[in-house]
């Protein structure tokens, strides 16, 4: 992945690529840029923030795993903190297309898992599809978010989704990204660190429609643990399951899904749906070597 990222630098103006190269080569580079790093880049290259973010999109798109379409989409989400988070589309062979992660979902869930509770802007290298417009509509402060595409003026998100159907139509007032505590308690006497991490993720999941609170924790062979939270959507189909959230973070951390050794998936029986079958199916495809543990609450 790091090689793909560095080769994507060739798509940037030479001076900018030269400036970014040491940042991207840092071992701790985590597919994001701080507000200070972004401001320095803008100043050094006499570019405004939107133009700079657009210029950086080839780097975000370098993280794409488009196994089916070979179509590389990059997105960058600016969090309320001022931090910029990369995202890219993930496609999975041999499972339903419904498992796909879109670039906007990748950048948004990246920001969410890094602690952002609002976003102010999203930059994308292609026009957002209907699925992503609906996903963005679920976000805390969606009315404040701007969308910027190449060669287009920056526009308010709601210009891209007039007459939106959203959470309020289903009498739901809690938006995605707002801090959550679903008050789930452990049901294992000798709790395992991965179980606790998955439970903590489930406690922060967004499932106001089904109450199927769900979280996952993946242990890699290098000892790193990545978690994922379920993110439901008022239109249901654009919901993002927890394993996809974790797989996205693993990819953005320059790690491989083949490094996953063990997975703990925790979910609460909701009104209807159960995610365990889907999660095990996807896990067995992308990380067949991983031990999968399932815990229903
Ligand atoms: Zn999309």
Q: Helices and strands in order, then pairings?
A:
Blueprint (H helix, E strand, L loop, with lengths): L1 H7 L5 H12 L6 E2 L1 H11 L3 H13 L3 E2 L7 E6 L4 E5 L1 E2 L11 H11 L5 E6 L5 H8 L8 E3 L6 E2 L36 H11 L10 E7 L4 E5 L12 H11 L7 E8 L8 H11 L4 E6 L1
Parallel strand pairs: 2-5, 6-7, 11-12
Antiparallel strand pairs: 1-4, 3-4, 3-6, 7-8, 9-10, 9-11
The chain binds zinc ion (ZN).
Zinc ion (ZN) binds next to helix 6.
Main features:
four-stranded mixed beta sheet, CMP_dCMP_dom, Cytidine Deaminase, domain 2, 297 residues, EC 3.5.4.5, binds zinc ion, six-stranded mixed beta sheet, metal-binding
Summed up, the domain count is 2
- Estimated radius of gyration: 19 Å
The largest β sheet comes out as:
6 strands, mixed
In the CATH hierarchy, the architecture of the largest domain is: 3-Layer(aba) Sandwich
Q: Please identify the oligomeric state.
A: single chain
The end-to-end span amounts to 37 Å
Give the helix/strand class: alpha/beta
Task: Supply the CATH class of the largest domain.
Answer: Alpha Beta
CATH topology of the largest domain: Cytidine Deaminase, domain 2
The count of DSSP E runs of length 2 or more, i.e. the number of strands, is 12
Overall pLDDT score:
96
What order do the SSEs take from the amino end to the carboxyl end, as H and E?
HHEHHEEEEHEHEEHEEHEHE
Strand order of the largest sheet: 1-4-3-6-7-8
Which cofactors or ions or other ligands sit in this model? Answer: zinc ion
Number of helices: 9
Cofactor: Zn(2+)
Protein name: Cytidine deaminase
Subunit structure: Homodimer.
Function: This enzyme scavenges exogenous and endogenous cytidine and 2'-deoxycytidine for UMP synthesis.
